[in-house]
Amino acid sequence: MPPANRTYRVLPGRRYPPGATVEDDGVNFSVFSRHAVGAELLLYHSASCETPFQIIPLDSKHHHTFFSWHALVVDLPPGTHYTWRMEGPNDPHGHGWRFDSEIELVDPWARAVNVSSWNRWRRQREGVRPHDSPRGIVLAEEYDWEGDQPLRLPTEQSIIYELHVGGFTRHPSSGVRHPGTFDGLVEKIPYLKELGITHVELMPVMAFDEQDVPDQVWDSGLRNYWGYSSFGFFSPHPGFCVTPEQGTHRRELRDMVKALHRAGIGVILDVVFNHTSEGGARGPTMTFKGFGNETFYCLDALDKGIYLDFTGCGNTVNANHPLVTHFILDALEYWVREMHVDGFRFDLASAMARDAEGRPMANPPVLWEIELSDTLAASKIIAEAWDAAGLYQVGSFPGYRWMEWNGRYRDSIRRFVRGDPGMVSEVATRLAGSSDLYEANLRKPINSVNFVTCHDGFTLWDLVSYDRKHNLANREGNRDGTNDNLSWNCGVEGETSDANVLALRRRQAKNLMTLLLLSQGIPMLLAGDEVLRTQQGNNNAWCQDNALSWLDWSLMERERAMLGFVRGLIALRKRHPSLQRRHFFSGQLAPGAEMPDVSWHGTKLDDPDWDDPELRWLAFTLAPVQQDEAILHVLINMDERARVFELPELGSAHWSVAVDTGRASPMDVVAPDDQTRVDAAQQVARARTILVLEAR
């Protein structure tokens, strides 16, 4: 913290690098603002100070180079908080300019931000008050990575676990020292390691505005829980830190990344570059609007006071403007280089494929820059390949290295397991890695991130317990969230004490999880599904920072049977390289092989009967790809009646049952040494049941 009553000498500084950079002589500040005619830098002792201790006016002669405003504050210590004020024309409808010299702005390149002074709704209703904005923090702490580097696990071996940093440990049952923080997640690493996943995919951890919610939601005491409302793309979210007022953001996140890496678990960040927390014309000016509104956002060509909204959140980032592309790439490379993260999942990534006027581009510069960046070359890059305005690019997202959340996979598997007929051909394609989406344009099974559930929608237990969404708690009249859940409640809507219904729901949950972990491509699990967490039918819990969304750790004991089942499935996937293929099946004998890489069957061998419109069952055999690997044979029966399946002959080997979703724990998933041998030439699969057999 700077000494009280001291005024610091100011030199011109330089335009590069952007942000606040600690140097030998002091701190160099630089921001981009193309059309500003003046700037002020405001310095604060701490997050709690009501007024700045020094205001530094910048003149265009000494502190302005090209489109940047800059200053070197001599001997300024780290820990100083700061904001900017920009002076310039205000012409939102003609040129899109929204300069306002009364509004303090947070530096887009700030390495840490503090929101103690920020009250979005007071500003919205009462107007701008002096010094009421989020603040950047000057950081210069040394950090000992102890040799840590981003992990480079082969993509085909990945098993992703999507979680919310706050909700993962905020429930009182978590028992951690600092619930809802990066530190709290560190305490749960042994659980993640025992589960067997290889990567955590963290819902947004870049600084976001928790107050960005509609009026009626805010007035109900709810807030933006999920975090898809970013404004600080270089700063860890202060709400996930133990001591953010001390500027410990980077250290706390780095400690978490390093600890996860020590456990062999990679870190993928869910990032939101499609829109920001500033919203549309009625939204507040926090950062980009005040530095370069016309540059950072897509605006209507005839009236630039209108924000083009392809995200459903009020604005769309003009991601393919050269300066914005550079900003996005700079942020991503920073998180890899300085924070050691292993990859990114891009929210509504198709919005980033649009030009300034909203037209889809064949070769969007920002997406290709991300794909071809040397710094990001080993990072996982995953697209949510659609946006909120109808651009759907699953299977056709620009680029080759991009992985995609495969929404087609989710929908096909849900429909099949709930009992829709005539799905076997479609489901076989999804199980085999979705070659119809990826093979023709030279991509691979590993381009497909397979999922049945994610944060957006029903949990696994709710998917088998509800036919309809129940979102009244969101205070939006149950209008929010999708109506097309492709779910089945097994005969009763919601909670029930009917033992038969509950047994069927558990079997259906196992079926969905089994198919996910038997599919080619990259499986992604939603945190809590392994213990059947419920949101009571809420399929859009974005504003529910409470027990409805939090993970109840007492479920680990109450649902230990399901937890054991999921652990066993993950272990089975890991011991079978045939489930982790980089290339699509050929269905042919490879040189020296004794059987095709895959064989498809119905109840009779080699007779899948693809064209039967009523078919609800399927079987397939996978050849081993390593010498010590077992052959896999999978029987899938989603019919309401039991089916008898022929089994392939093995010669001197024999089949054993590894998985039977119709059995109770611990016989539903069985380690190789404890498996039951099958001596018959046929095997019965009961109604709505999946069996996995191994042969050695």
Automatic annotation (TrEMBL):
A Pfam short name = CBM_48
Record-linked SUPFAM superfamilies: (Trans)glycosidases (SSF51445), E set domains (SSF81296), Glycosyl hydrolase domain (SSF51011)
Single GO term (MF): isoamylase activity
Q: Where is the Glycosyl hydrolase family 13 catalytic domain?
A: 162-573
Q: Please provide the Gene Ontology terms (biological process) for this protein.
A: glycogen catabolic process
Q: Does the keyword Magnesium apply?
A: no
What keywords is this UniProt entry annotated with? Glycosidase, Hydrolase, Transit peptide
Family, as annotated: Belongs to the glycosyl hydrolase 13 family.
- List the protein's name: Glycogen debranching protein GlgX
Q: What is this protein's gene name?
A: glgX
